[in-house]
Amino acid sequence: MPIARIVARYSENAKDTITLLCGVDEENQIRQGEWFGVVKNDDGRGDESNYPFTLHVDHQKGEFFLDYGYDDVDSRQLQKTDIQLNPLKENSFFTIFDEEEGEEFSYQIVSIHLYD
């Protein structure tokens, strides 16, 4: 199974990025499973922060979300995404939906590297 390393930039601040490692199928779509990623926020003042997450992809249940996996299960932060809807390709966009805050975050894929 090929593994992809995806780097995407936040549409409102190119210094904010997501890096994701995930399995992909022959059509370059994310395979079912749990995949590791990191959100990097950089405010440009030297105050960079990194947030690891797990991307959960379950095609049978129609569940696709980021889990920021806090120690306390009751305070976990889950955010839905649409990254799985289309084949992965450079310059395409996907959205992360923060239902708790009522916000959407659009990211543009800037690079995809496949490993066999």
Automatic annotation (TrEMBL):
Highest rank taxon of the organism: Bacteria
Organism: Chania multitudinisentens RB-25
Protein name per its UniProtKB record: Uncharacterized protein
